Amino acid sequence: MKTTILGYPRIGSHRELKKACEAFWDKKINEEDLLKTALDLKTRNWLQQQESGIDLIPSNDFSLYDQVLDTCLMVGCIPERYKYIPKENTLELYFAMARGLQKEGIDVTAMEMTKWFDTNYHYIVPEFEKKQTFNYFSKKVIKEYKEALAIGIETKPVLIGPVTFLLLGKEKEEGFQRLDLLDKLLPVYLEIIQELTDLGVEYIQFDEPCLALNLGNNERQAITTTYQTIHRQFPKLKIFLANYFDCYGDNLETALQLPVDTLHLDLVRCQLQLDDILNSEHFNKNTKLSLGVVDGRNIWKNDFEASLKTIEKALTKVPFENICISSSCSLLHTPYDLDLETNLKFDIKQWLAFAKQKLEEINTIKNLCLPENDAYLPLYEENKLANLNRKTSKLIHNNEVKNRVLKLTEADSHRESNFSIRQAKQKNALNLPLYPTTTIGSFPQTKEVRNWRLKHKKGQLSQEDYDNLIAKEIEDSIRFQEDIGLDVLVHGEFERNDMVEYFGERLNGFAFSDFGWVQSYGSRCVKPPILFGDVSRENRMTVKWSEYAQSLTEKPLKGMLTGPVTILQWSFVRNDQPRQATCNQIALAIRDEVVDLEKHGLKIIQIDEPAIREGLPLRKEAWAEYLNWAVKAFRISASGVKDETQIHTHMCYSEFNDIIASIADMDADVITIETSRSEMELLEAFVNFNYPNEIGPGVYDIHSPRVPSLQEIENLLLKAKQVLPKEHIWVNPDCGLKTRDWPETKQALENIVKAAKKLRQQELELV
Ligand SMILES: CN1c2c(nc(N)[nH]c2=O)NC[C@@H]1CNc1ccc(C(=O)N[C@@H](CCC(=O)N[C@@H](CCC(=O)N[C@@H](CCC(=O)O)C(=O)O)C(=O)O)C(=O)O)cc1
Ligand SMILES: N[C@@H](CCS)C(=O)O
Ligand SMILES: [Zn+2]
């Protein structure tokens, strides 16, 4: 029996990689310094895994920015627009693809980014053209294998499988299907595998999480062709095939017939597939099984008793030596180390395991399976006790909250009137111009603002002083928004550390870590709150600052809240009750806040739901049930106000096509969406569906430091104007501006307002 994991977090327990990357981008450190930090992190990760008894330790799971971008570089899939960046300057090219580049006559946009399956991790979307060619360009995988070898660790290199790589990408022109490129891509993979096997690599982990999706026959055939070809050419190579985040489902038969050494199962997301596999006529008894019993997506302690039962079941059909104990998916999605948390209550801390603790769990589970396991029995008992304690803890249950959810009625998820009546009333109440301009909520979270919060947290800045600084920042931002002529203002979210953590900190039922960082994209991290119990709102959460901001201006100010599905989705959520039940509890807490904002004079309230698409189950069979409760939860949160109050929602990084009916069903008066990186492509779904309510297609890609020109914004707006009724169009950036600096924000927003004014002028001239 062996142990493995599919990947380890890489940002650093103290976000060392984030800090090094950002210092490198700011030219405060050079390439050598950055690469040294990276090597230190990789080395620490490998040694940690070795020390924890992991047998098959992954390499090439590290990335300076994103593993899909690494794969693009590996196979030379570099879009034409980067050709002016010298290829020898690999890091400049790499970060230009990730973030865009504006310097010395070069002005290139970044590649698109989207969500990695149903996680809050974003990957860079590969771009393919009809005449796409591939070549073995970046040798990172070799370099990392050698780096580990240099410290005496023989690793299992991880590659994103060619089929998943193609499916995750996008055709940039018509007339071909990206899967047709497999014939050209596969030879490059073979070249890479050749180099790895020449170095003595025994196992390669191929990540093919596309197997968790509904695939067509040609996609399944592509999987079969790929692994038959690899096996034919490298019969001695041990192919470790990893699918995760859901079952193999109807791809199981294909997967079971592949010539692979080890098949990985995510047994956290899909318990039942083990029975299906063991009972399948296609199951080859010589195939090893990697049993992903330790949750790579959540932070609850493993239930050893349950895991051992699962392993016992596998052992009825699979020889002991053919079992590998592993994490359900890469541990990338969990924080580093629970030992760093000194402020978590013991009661709660005893229920948790972060990445380092998960390594230890995997090792313990394996040892508990051995005949001589005496030394590990105390750990088994400790685990049993902690889990029992969680089941019965008084910290978790609140009957008042449970009853309120039980008493919800259909009427609680409906506004008083339908949209057209509300629209007319809101027009009167708000008196906005055509093409109203607004922003999505946050303004730059500068170093100063974050430092005030840090000092305040450490007790070095009093509540009063902190509040005064925030108030001044809000006032400045209101003046700025008025000066440039925005129509609907925001307070700027300066008081918030994060749009989910901030609410979690103010709601009952949540706990917080100090170092529970998880990479969201590139150098950006989030610290998901730990949602352990019934959720309720004790006090108002946002009214003070929104009311204050509104008092500074005659223009309408948007109250700013995070929606129930997003709070659920971006927290480490309890696994002892259905997600739907937890979501309704959050919805009621947000509803109370919405009603309070209205009471305090806010005429527009935005309830952000950027995670609604990401929460969609990977398999379509499960969509309807999810969408039903998710949309309902949003509606519960939004429906406590009168018709005149305008409810906005915001979503970013979403493919809307498949779920557009549900988005319309959310019945927000206005929705702002991400569209600029995709050149308004994402708007298509709204147009085809005849989306009934108002819509603000983002015209400024806020994830890149690039300032969009007036012309670019105008072009995007013209595209929107061609397909949407003009009375429905809002003009706004893609998403919040918290990651941007003020100078570029000012320039970009000025351009946005100018573009909207120009459009209005053109309308006047037409009359
Ligand atoms: C909209 N997005 C979000 C997602 N998920 C969320 N939970 N939140 C989101 O906003 N998913 C999809 C997208 C992803 N986008 C982003 C965008 C930006 C960030 C981001 O900027 N993250 C910050 C960390 C934010 C935070 O929690 N800050 C705290 C702690 C501040 C801190 O680092 N303090 C320093 C000292 C201050 C200093 O000197 O700089 C310290 O403690 O050492 C706060 O503001 O109080 C990031 O830095 O990565 C994430 C996802
Ligand atoms: N209101 C949030 C939404 C981000 S998705 C912000 O502006 O940052
Ligand atoms: Zn957003």
UniProtKB/TrEMBL annotation:
Catalytic activity: 5-methyltetrahydropteroyltri-L-glutamate + L-homocysteine = tetrahydropteroyltri-L-glutamate + L-methionine
EC number: 2.1.1.14
Keywords, sorted A to Z: Amino-acid biosynthesis, Metal-binding, Methionine biosynthesis, Methyltransferase, Repeat, Transferase, Zinc
Ligand binding (L-methionine): I440, G441, S442, E493, D608
Residue intervals of the Cobalamin-independent methionine synthase MetE N-terminal domain: 3-316
InterPro entries per UniProt: Cbl-indep_Met_Synth_N, Cobalamin-indep_Met_synthase, Met_Synth_C/arc, UROD/MetE-like_sf
Binding sites annotated in the UniProt record for L-homocysteine: I440, G441, S442, E493, D608
Regions crossing the membrane: none
Family the UniProt entry places it in: Belongs to the vitamin-B12 independent methionine synthase family.
Protein name per UniProt: 5-methyltetrahydropteroyltriglutamate--homocysteine methyltransferase
